[in-house]
From TrEMBL:
Protein name stated in the entry: phosphoenolpyruvate--protein phosphotransferase
Entire-sequence positions represented here: 429 to 757 of 764
Sequence similarity: Belongs to the PEP-utilizing enzyme family.
Location of this chain's protein in the cell: Cytoplasm
Domain of life: Bacteria
Length: 329
């Protein structure tokens, strides 16, 4: 199997009915970057909290600048999506303790950074400075629940943009206004896509948190692990609705949760209309291989059946039957 996957490694990511699918990498450390360079993919999600978690204090603006510069320069022709700090929940910062009874429902992602604009501004300034002369910076906001949070974040990003443009005005290349997007991972945003689309350039679906919050199942709690499944028909119907709404709003959308890196997940997402999938680097070759054997027209037949299922296990059976029929199981 590994050999068969490998034999397709450098072939274009298109379905058997010629639909191109863009594969992107989820990253969070520079080691993964090297892998990403090898495979020539862009970065659909760079989790900036990971380098923050490995330190003993907040990295300074210049330390962050160095890091983001290295990432943006690693693939200047590809889109690079840097997500603003997503700490809280299961991702603690040793030097910024948060004690809460319900951390996943508490001070997480933009909730924290909008309450601490100095943290947010330093990070965005570092990203913008690093983007000088490049055109690939995309800034992604985690844990957005309300339109007002996007307004607040956009205001701060604008402020940083004006400051940095002014500081760098002697540079010939200058900086470009970054593209700004939001994570769709809190169920409330499913009902606000049309409003959000007017304020952002792109969306990125976080299936890990979307599953956790839709099913009210802690994604890290072993006791309820059996209840946590992104193949739950409720999650799939939400994902399908998101794809349709993003299409109607004419706003690009990527899926960056774990589901995109699973063969069964990738084919369901393609059937829903998603064309950009971001995943851990080690899944890229396998998913490329699956996509090269999949057929969107056939998947369009499979999707209504999957969405009509009552149990995640039925969906998994349907999907496995399809993968087996293509000898991909
Ligand atoms: C997600 O929630 O699906 C996601 C990609 O973000 P993270 O796993 O970092 O919360
Ligand atoms: Mg998330």
């Amino acid at each position: 199997l590994a050999e068969r996957i490998e034999s397709h490694a450098n072939k274009p990511c298109v379905t058997t009915d010629d639909q191109p699918i863009t594969l992107l990498v989820n990253a969070g450390l520079s080691a993964e970057l090297e892998l990403q360079q090898m495979q020539g993919a862009g970065i659909g999600l760079y989790r900036t909290e990971i380098p923050f978690m490995l330190r003993e204090r907040f990295p300074s603006e210049s330390e962050q600048y160095e890091l983001y510069l290295q990432i943006l320069q690693s693939a200047p022709q590809q889109e690079i999506t840097l997500r603003t700090l997503d700490v809280g929940g299961d991702k603690p910062l040793p030097y910024f303790p948060i004690n809460e009874e319900n951390p996943f429902l508490g001070w997480r992602g933009v909730r924290l950074t909008l309450d601490h604009p100095e943290i947010f501004l330093v990070q965005v300034r570092a990203m913008l400075r690093a983007s000088a002369g490049l055109h690939n910076l995309h800034i992604l906001l985690p844990m957005i629940t309300s339109v007002s949070e996007v307004d607040d974040a956009n205001r701060l990003i604008n402020q940083a943009y004006h400051e940095v443009s002014e500081e760098l005005k002697s540079l010939p290349q200058g900086i470009q206004r970054p593209r700004v997007g939001v994570m769709l991972e809190v169920p409330a945003v499913i009902y606000q896509i049309a409003h959000l689309a007017k304020k952002v350039d792109f969306f990125s679906v976080g299936t890990n948190d979307l599953t956790q919050y839709l099913l009210a199942v802690d994604r890290n709690n072993a006791r309820v692990a059996d209840l946590y499944s992104s193949y739950h028909p409720a999650v799939l119907n939400a994902l399908s609705s998101i794809a349709q709404q993003c299409h109607l709003a004419n706003t690009p959308v990527t899926v960056c949760g774990e589901l995109a890196g699973e063969p069964g997940g990738a084919i369901l997402l393609m059937a829903m209309g998603y064309r950009k999938l971001s995943m851990n680097a080690h899944n890229i070759r396998k998913i490329n291989w699956v996509i090269r054997h999949a057929n969107i027209a056939e998947l369009n037949f499979l999707l209504p059946d999957a969405l009509a299922c009552q149990h995640p296990s039925e969906v998994v059976c349907l999907v496995n039957d399809y993968l087996n029929s293509k000898d991909l199981g």
